[in-house]
Amino acid sequence: MAISINDLNNLQMDVLREIGNIGAGNAATALAKMMNKRIDMDVPKINVLEFKNVSDILGGAETLVVGILLKVTGDLTGNIMFMLDIESARLLVSILMGEEASKYTDACEFNEIEQSALKEIGNILAGSYLSALSSLTNLLIMPSIPDLAVDMAGAILSVPAIEFGKVGDTVLYIETEFAYGPSVVVGDFFLVPDIDSYETLLKALGVTN
Question: Which residues of 86-125 are buried (b: 16+ CB within 10 A; e: fewer)?
Answer without folding.
Answer: bebbbbbbbbbeeeeeeeeeeeeebeeebbebbbebbbbb
